[in-house]
UniProtKB/TrEMBL annotation:
Organism of provenance: Pseudonocardia halophobica
Protein name: Radical SAM protein
Molecular function GO labels: catalytic activity; iron-sulfur cluster binding; metal ion binding
Top-rank lineage group of the source organism: Bacteria
Presence of keyword Ribosomal protein: no
Record keywords, A-Z: Iron, Iron-sulfur, Metal-binding
């Protein structure tokens, strides 16, 4: 292990509470910036349409390195860039569980739902090393706080006994994000993520543990992953894995993400650049006509796979999540099938 706390602290004035920066051979090319967080609970702005009031993010940056990740721009607040730095310079809040337990013990804490996985992935590879989530899960459970987790990380499987125990005490919503089944495209698009079969296996393990597991088919990439055939095959596998519900969301391209994604598209699929410029000419959200057509394509597929027992199409508005809309919306009725089309 190599550490260079002093040098990194001088180079990264945006990193408050930095204890040290760590590089290890198992995580080649990644730097972990270990910080002492002052707070763990983040208030979701009152104007947000999301169905939870609080989030906890043990990590900033994400080695899953999804090209389309919505959270990229948040790294610029740390004097790091929204591109390669977001993927490889990971801020680790090493004391997050302790700080969270303290915050949850306040008499004023109203036990509102807490969401994880809304900014960066709490079960990214770093969690295998730092093991921050078990303490977070215990703190939330002991305080009687409902919570949800959305992830692409198979490290979650390690904590299934804790999550099953938590679900006996408080409402727990679990979701796995899986945008596509094509291995070659997944490797280029989400190079740091577990493979689609590994994530489907995680869905199965969650279901086998007696817990509901929603799947976010998100983001759907226009002209790359949005054919009826591709979605049909993916939904068939999602259903077979035992998902309790599915949400389908089209790609959003917010500033910071847009530049990184469009550079990638120009390298990998240059012929698609004009089509994307047209589809996203209005800003971060795909052309409404495309969205309607996608909804029409998906609806019969959901019916065919028995995934359409939802209250209907739901819009959760626009400020977006890297993994799509969170499973927290299922906290009140964890067994209800839910379809979200954005
Ligand atoms: S989309 Fe999620 S898993 Fe992918 S890099 Fe962003 S936070 Fe990580």
């Amino acid at each position: 292990m190599l550490t260079d706390g002093v040098g990194e602290a001088a180079a990264l004035p945006g990193l408050r509470g930095l204890l040290r920066s760590v590089r290890t051979p198992e995580f080649a090319g990644t730097v972990f910036h270990e910080v002492e967080a002052k707070s763990a609970l983040n208030r979701v702005p009152g104007s947000s349409p999301m169905p939870f009031g609080w989030t906890v993010n043990p990590y900033r940056g994400c080695s899953h390195a999804c090209v389309y990740c919505f959270a990229r721009n948040t790294h610029t607040y740390l004097d790091l860039d929204a591109g390669a730095d977001f993927d490889s310079q990971i801020v680790v809040k090493v004391n997050v569980g302790r700080v969270l337990a303290r915050e949850l013990a306040r008499p004023s804490w109203a036990r509102e739902p807490v969401a994880m996985g809304t900014n960066t992935d709490p079960y990214q590879r770093a969690e295998g090393r730092y093991r921050l989530m078990p303490e977070i899960i215990r703190a939330l459970t002991r305080s009687g706080t409902p919570f949800s987790i959305l992830t692409k990380g198979t490290v979650l499987g390690r904590d299934l006994p804790d999550l099953a125990a938590a679900a006996r005490e408080v409402p727990v919503g679990l979701g796995v994000s899986l945008a596509l089944a094509d291995r070659a495209l997944q490797g280029r698009l989400e190079p740091g993520t577990p493979s689609p079969p590994a994530r489907l296996d995680l869905v199965k393990r969650i279901a086998d543990a007696g817990l509901d597991c929603g799947v976010m088919v998100a983001p759907v990439l226009p002209l790359l992953t949005d054919s009826a055939e591709a979605l049909d095959a993916l939904l068939e596998r999602v259903r077979a894995a035992g998902a309790s519900g599915v949400s389908v969301l089209a790609l959003h391209l917010r500033p910071g993400t847009r530049e990184w994604f469009m550079d990638w598209l120009a390298r990998e699929y240059p012929a698609l650049v004009p089509a994307y410029e047209r589809l996203y000419r209005g800003g971060a959200y795909v052309d409404p006509e495309y969205r309607r057509a996608l909804a029409e394509r998906v609806r019969p597929l959901l019916r065919r796979h028995g995934l359409d027992r939802s209250a209907g199409v739901q819009r959760t508005g626009g400020d977006g999540f890297p993994h799509g809309a969170p499973p927290a919306e299922r906290l009140a009725a964890p067994v209800v099938e839910q379809l979200t089309l954005l």
